[in-house]
Amino acid sequence: MTTVLPYVNFFQTKKGIFSWIFSVDHKRIALLYLYSILIFFLAGATLGVLMRLELLNPGKDIMEAQTYNQVFTMHGVIMIFLFIIPSIPAVFGNFFLPILLGTDDVAFPRLNLLSWWIYIIGALMALSTLLFGDGPADTGWTFYAPYSVKTGTNVTMSVLAAFVIGFSSILTGLNFIVTIHRLRTPGMNFLRMPLFVWSLYATSWIQLLATPIIGITLLMIVAERVLGVGLFDPSIGGDPILYQHLFWIYSHPAVYIMALPAFGVVSEMLPTFAQRTIFGYKAIAFSSLAIAFVGYFIWGHHMFTAGMSGAARFIFSILTFLVAIPTAIKVFNWVATLYKGSINVQVPLLYVLAFIFQFMIGGFTGLVVGALASDIHLHDTYFVVGHFHYVMFGGTGFAFFGALHYWYPKIWGKMYNKVVANVAFVLLFIGFNTLYFPMLVVGLMGMPRRYYDYLPEFHLPNMISTYGSWILATGILLMVGNLIAGFYRKGPKVGRNPWNGITLEWQTLSPPPLENFDRMPQLPLNGPYDFEHKPEIKE
Amino acid sequence: MTTSASTFAQGVDLSLYVIVGISLFFLVGITFVMLYFVFRYNKKRNPVASNIEGSHTMEIIWTAIPTILVMVMFYFGWTGYKPLRTVPDGAIELKAYGQMWKFSFEYPDGRITDSLVVPIGKPVKVNLVSRDVLHSLFIPAFRMKEDMVPGKNNFLWFEATQLGRYDILCAEYCGQLHSYMLSSVTVVEQPEYEKWLASAPSTADEHPGLALLKQNACLTCHSQDGSKIIGPSFKGVFGKTEIVETDGVERSIVIDEEYIARSIKNPNSDIVKGYMKGLMVSYEKVLNDEQIGHITDYIKTLK
Q1: For A136-280, where are the alpha helices, taking DSSP H only?
Q2: Which long-range contacts does B265-273 make (Cβ < 8 Å, 24+ apart)?
Q3: ipTM of the predicted structure?
Q4: What whole-number distance in Å separates Cα of residue A282 and Cα of residue A415?
Q5: Is the pLDDT of residue A432 over 80?
Q6: What average pLDDT does range A108-116 have in this prediction?
Q7: Chain A contacts in chain B segment 71-100 (CB below 8 A)
Q8: CB-based burial of residue B238 (10 Å sphere; 0-12 exposed, 13-18 middle, 19+ buried)?
Q9: Which residues of A touch B248 (CB under 8 A)?
Q10: What is the side-by-side order of every strand in the sheet holding B135-139?
Q11: Neighbours of A512 (CB within 10 A)
Q12: Which of A275, A332, A376 sits opposite B145 (nearest CB)?
């Protein structure tokens, strides 16, 4: 190649580790997040595979009860706080929010770097419990009192870690809100923003407003353990139900911190691969806000069996059902976006289709546990474990992988091997459903969650589930391996717009230059997905 | 589904079938339409896309229909659930205790058992008491579950409709042996229940110390045969010299009457080396000095 690029891309501007870990470029910070998040995801998944191995047969398979309890706690802490909460916003939000808005960085680049550092410090604190103190926490990621106050394991450090990581989430949320309000390119009003931006906007408000509550709640656990204040432990005058309220006031909205960004990336990918505008732009945009808003008021459904009053159970159940409506609206609009499109079936679209299917199962099983009668039977059983893995992994996880395949050529300027990517997808899809569907069944049969050992009648579904974990793990390794191999692939570089997308990131170079755009981005005439008036993109 | 053996099963299962039925219809329908679109409007069959921006009619339809359906689901959930909290008059009233990691049940006549025996066709109200952390009393066959929260008076009730023996499981994570916190409920005919009530508890010829150890779930953690469970085994422990940790300082002590009493009343003050702090709660208010004396006497016999 003799062509000289007019700009150096953001990889080439500076070299060396310090130019990365102290970079204030949103794209480099996004990749710092990506690499750290993927490492934690693989660690969390390894713990998950070990748990499944232990549950292959009744009785002890590979570890003791106490170890198992610590493993599922660490799995939950890693997957929730270190993978799924930061995942899409911190990686793709950081990388693409400024580009989708047609600007050169987030509003507060230094704060952005600080968020990553706080995340890393918090992560190291969480992992330090493996080495220091009386062993990692054995409470479950929910840290329910009074067990979390009484247990001898290192709960104090674990909750402090979650407290610290919370600040990373708050600062990212703040940064994005200001960026969206202040840094949109001229001509882009709120209703011309891409839907991923809308979903990040809704998410950021939850991060900003709800995360402080978990912060103070976790500090209360520390105060209880260290000073014996008497907040949650009834033997010293506290109330364990108070803890549950405080915990879920954050942790239920947090479910939408995890899910809304996934809705956003799906709403980006669908128009690109259908080559047409999104169906019901406003419905999708505003339903994100509706979900974020109603999502604040339904935390009580985590406590239907904890002894709340009848009135409280009635209200929390009905509000829970209300959240299903904006969610259903989104699904209908996504499917309608495929109508009369010109559909290009590529790897990211397969992830989107799997996302819609699995997310629907996650949503429908959510209705089952949102209803009071059926919840009484299913509360705290494996049905719930199956339900939230369908939402979080089958939904958000698959959307994350889809987004990774979608924006890969933009970020690195190369294309992965598509055949291998398809095979990995099939393994992931089969493995995922083989792993988690039996959990729904065994939950209906009455097997409680967080069980190290189980009655013989639960054996078959547990066995199938464990087999599924092997298929899923193979799929994940193949997918990650294929993406890494893509960096070293020979062959032509991809152009600016390998998928023929319409949003602004496809108008710039792949990888983008430091300032994001080499020429002024052009907005389509009528809204962000107006394929009929798509600005011509010259290489 | 698992066996159904209480009056709640019908209402709970009905709400489940209604929700799962509606859900399956939409899951299959939407998935089918989605895949059909991908096939029908594939770029080979449909090279030029139509830029349809949306439709108010469709938005109204697919807002209204889910709204109605979720309210139907809510209704079945609520009506199936309401009887679960409405205890009929004249119910037999029992107490269930949860502690790490054992259920025990107290009958009106004061007898304490490891498992439940109830008559068929009679409402039974169970008051739930936790002695340490959260537990949850779960009877899958009865579709019944309620948390046992320390410091709070929760209850559940049920009316069994089928004879037999059904599992009771702890559904709220409560520490190391959570998955072994199991018991059972046996549903019998009324005459058989009365006969059982009239019979003397079978613990009469036991050492009073052993009876107390069983009642208070001590043996879940402390074995009698020298094996290590959670705490030190009782076998041969009396008179033994042990290294204990007191306020972070290790010291050597001989296990005597005074140490046993201290360990029952204030279990975290001297932890034997190699064991974990914080797992045992104080039994100061549960056991009096005479009872502690019985326990000490029994432990002396375990050589």
Answers
A1: 147-150, 155-182, 195-227, 240-274
A2: B270/B244, B270/B245, B270/B246, B271/B244, B271/B245, B272/B232, B272/B242, B272/B243, B272/B244, B272/B245, B273/B242, B273/B243, B273/B244, B273/B245
A3: 0.90
A4: 33
A5: yes
A6: 95
A7: 71, 73-74, 76-81, 84-85
A8: buried
A9: none
A10: B116-119, B182-188, B164-170, B135-139, B144-148
A11: 26
A12: A376
Please tell me which of the candidates A139, A241, A332 has its beta carbon nearest to residue B62: A332
Residue type, A259: A
For residue A312, give the H/E element and its range: helix A310-338
Query: Which two three-digit tokens encode residue A48?
Result: 């998950």
Cα within 13 Å of Cα(A264), Cβ side = 30
State both tokens at A206.
């939850």
The reply to whether B36 touches chain A by the CB within 8 Å rule is no
Residue A228 in tokens: 């014996």
- pLDDT (average), residues A81-109: 95
More confident residue, A85 or B100: A85
Give the helix/strand (H/E) hosting B244: strand B241-246
Q: Which of A113-127, A370-384, B106-120 has the lowest mean pLDDT?
A: B106-120
| Residue of B149, B182, B281 lying closest to A306 (CB–CB) | B149
Q: Does residue B298 contact residue B257 with C-beta atoms inside 8 Å?
A: no
Q: B215 near B112, Cβ under 8 Å?
A: yes
Between CA B294 and CA B213 the distance in angstroms is: 10
Residues of A in contact with B132 (CB under 8 A): 146, 150
Question: What region, left, alpha or beta, does residue B143 occupy, with left being phi > 0 and alpha being psi -120 to 50 degrees?
Answer: left
Is A235 in Cβ contact with B150 (below 8 Å)?
yes
- Smallest Cβ–Cβ distance between B178 and the set A373, A446, A450 belongs to A450
Q: Is the dihedral angle over the CA atoms A26, A32, A35, A40 positive or is it negative?
A: negative
- The answer to whether the Cβ–Cβ distance between A338 and B177 falls below 8 Å is no
The mean predicted confidence, pLDDT, of chain A is: 92
Assess whether the previous peptide bond of A511 is cis (omega < 30° from 0).
yes
CA A180 – CA A187 distance, rounded (Å):
13
Q: Are A27 and A44 in contact (CB under 8 A)?
A: no
- Cβ–Cβ under 8 Å, residues A59 and A453: yes
Residues 189-228 of A with CB under 8 A from B: none
Q: Indicate the residue of A331, A342, A444 with minimum beta-carbon distance to B30.
A: A331
Query: Residues A33, A86: contact at Cβ < 8 Å?
Result: yes
CB burial of residue A474 (10 Å; 0-12, 13-18, 19+): middle
Contact B90, B123 (CB under 8 A): yes
Alpha helices in A17-108 (DSSP H): 18-21, 26-54, 65-77, 87-88, 94-100
Q: What is the DSSP string of A196-221?
A: HHHHHHHHHHHHHHHHHHHHHHHHHH
pTM: 0.91
Query: Is residue A252 a contact partner of residue A332, using CB atoms and an 8 Å limit?
Result: no
Residue in chain A closest to B66 (alpha carbons) equals A325
| CB neighbours of residue B48 within 10 Å | 11
Which residues in chain B touch residue A284, judged by CB atoms under 8 angstroms apart? none
Give the whole-angstrom CA distance, residue A496 versus residue B134: 57
For A228-248, b/e burial (b = at least 16 CB within 10 A) is ebebbbbbeebbbbebbbbbb
Q: Are A516 and A179 in contact (CB under 8 A)?
A: no
Domains of chain A: 18-533 (1.20.210.10)
Residue A1 has pLDDT above 50, yes or no: no
Contact assignment for B151 to A65 by CB distance below 8 Å? no
Q: Which domains does chain B have, with CATH numbers?
A: 9-85 (1.10.287.90), 92-198 (2.60.40.420), 208-301 (1.10.760.10)
Residues of A in contact with B11 (CB under 8 A): 373
Contacts of B198 (CB under 8 A, 6+ apart): none
